[in-house]
Structure formats: C-alpha cells, structure tokens
Amino acid sequence: MPQNKIKVLLVEDSITVLGLLKHILNEDSHFQVIGCVGNGKMAIEFVDRNKPDVISMDINMPVMDGLEATRQIMYYNPVPIVIVSSQYEPSNVSLSFNILKAGALTILPTPFGPGNPQYLQMARDYRNTLKMMSGIKVTAQRKKPVSPVPEVKPVNNQSPQIIIAGTKPEIIAIGASAGGPMAIQTILNKIPSNIPVPIMIVQHIDSNFADGYCEWLMSTSLIPVKIARDGEKLKPGNAYLPPGDTHLGFHDKGIAKVTKDLPERNLRPAVSYLFNSLAKTYGKQAVAILLSGMGQDGANELKMLRTLGSLTIAQDEASSLVHGMPGEAIRIGGASLILSPENIVNELIKIYNL
Fold it and tell me: What's the mean pLDDT in 200-224?
C-alpha cells in the first residue's frame, strides 16, 4: 500500500456523481479522498483549512460555481484543479478556455457509470489525470502591474542578447503547455499589428480544440491567427498554429511544414519539433519563447538555440501557471531573458523598433 497517498478534494453537488467519483478513486490505493463538498464556496473554505494534492471540480453548482471557485483558489491558495463536468464538449470552445483562464489545468467529461461500455476507460483516464496533475506545482494567479520598461533577468550572470542593427530576427517561435493559452492570448493581444515577421506557435492541447483555440485567440488578437497548411508561404504579421495532432516546423525559410511525423516524448505537436526545425532553418536569426507548461518539452532545444545565437526567452515563474518547461530551460541555462508575457511584448517592440 502506498505510504504517501494522493489527497483528493471532490467538489460536486450531485450525490450520484459524487458516489461514482469516490468509487473510481477507491479502486486505486494511491488515492485518499480527504473531503467532499457540494459547492464552490465550501471548496474555498475547505482549502483554507486543508491542503489537498489535487481538486476534482464540477462547474454548475449552487451558491458558487466551479469557475469562480477555481479563480479564488488559484488566487489565494493555489492547488492543481481538474474540472470534471457533464458539460464538457470539445465544440464548446468558449467554456473550455474560460475554464483554463480561471486557472484549471485541464478538463474531463464526467465518467459514465459501471454499466456503460466506456466506464473502464473513462475511470482509468480520470485516475491517471488526477495522478499526473497532483504532482504539478502551480503558481498563484495574481495580476501584477507591468513596468513600462521590462525587467531583464539575464541567466548565469551573462548579458542578454544584443540585436545588431540590420540583423533583426526573421521569425518568432513560441512553445507552451498548461497555462499557455492565457500567456499566448496576452502576447497576441498586445503585439503591434505591424510586427514584421511571422509568429509560429505550438501549444499542447486536445486535438479536438485546435480550430476552436485558433478562433479563441483570433477573437482578441491584434494580428491574424491561422491554422498553418503544409507548404504555405508564411506572411509577416501573422500567427500560425498547427492542426490538431500535428507537428509544426519549416521546409525552408518562410515555408511552413505541417506533418504527422512521430510524436516526440509522446507529444504531437511538440515544442521540441518546432524548435529543432527552427534551429536547422533559421539558426541565430530567430526569437524562441518558452511559456508556462508542465514537463520539459522544448527546454533542451531552447538551450541549443541560445548556443546558436538566437534570442531565447523563458516566462518568469510569477506569471506562469506551471513553471515546468520554462523553469527547466532556465535551470539548464537555455534562457537569455526571463520575462512575463507583457514584458515579452515590450522586448519584441524594442527589438523590432515598433
């Protein structure tokens, strides 16, 4: 029997669903359900007194819904939160990204009961997701004032990259995972529309959400956001995403590569794929940015790009929901600069004289 069990708080107003979730977790000795509450207000009060390793949170509940409870928990007492709801539909893009924006790490449909043929798989997915998320260190989601001049934090006491006149980077590449949608939204919402280079973006996301994610970003972006096509000529001032379950890279300078090449570290799209392709195609003539995300995808490749002479930026811990990917890049010396999303934009404005 495991010595250190995963302590779970269940937040669910349906007695039937609550019983089902408890049953699923009780089938695995790694879990200990330390609390069951029926609304968001009770969840906030529980977290004030206790410290679960992970929270399973419903959306629609009386008194206070799961979205508001998630926002408040992530502001005052951050804990990894998984939204579990019968409302989950890949087509409901607005709800899905509002959930992620509130600070939840991921979203799952409520599992069907034991009589359903999908029960075993859904129960397994539920347990595996809670296990994975319980080990993630999340950061309080508090808005901080942005200084007009970005605070530049060079790594290892080295000077940040110097962009010499006439040698401005020809491309910007961004990689992100958990917490990335909000950071990318912030960047695209603030980047001037006359940015003179294309922006390539890889975000770990459910393949069913790719088109909806593009639409969601486009709704607030100052520049066009598109799903890239293989062989497409990249346009300055446009942002490109891969289709679902597809890698994004380059055939040549200015030509997009969209491919079903094998996953890297079980990821497709992978930030590592984008950054490797960036290094081969652009060398030092690039800006590579690694944003909030769990794991280490893209960290080694960011260091490689820095070695080649590219400007490399990692998101700072204070503004990251999960500082796994950027934190690893910083640890191994892969980041020239460590900045918040707002100050990443300030740095790009300075580089391109916008």
Answer: 91
Q: Which domains does the chain have, with CATH numbers?
A: 6-134 (3.40.50.2300), 155-351 (3.40.50.180)
Cβ proximity of 173 and 200 under 8 Å: yes
For the chain, percent of residues with pLDDT exceeding 70: 92
Q: How far apart are CA 180 and CA 150, in angstroms?
A: 20
pLDDT at 157 over 50: no
Residues paired with residue 172 on neighbouring β-strands, in sequence order? 199, 287
> Where residue 31 falls among pLDDT bands split at 50, 70, 90?
very high
| pLDDT tens digits along 107-143 | 999 999 999 999 999 999 999 999 999 988 898 876 5
> What mean pLDDT is predicted for residues 187-210?
94
Q: pTM for the complete prediction?
A: 0.85
Please determine, for residue 247, whether its predicted confidence score (pLDDT) is greater than 50.
yes
| Mean pLDDT, residues 289-314 taken together | 97
Is cis: bond before 269, omega within 30 of 0? Answer: yes
Catalytic machinery residues: 177, 204, 297
The tokens of 204 are what? 């770990």
Rounded distance between C-alpha atoms, residue 201 and residue 175, angstroms = 6
Q: In the numeric block, which tokens belong to residue 354?
A: 């916008």
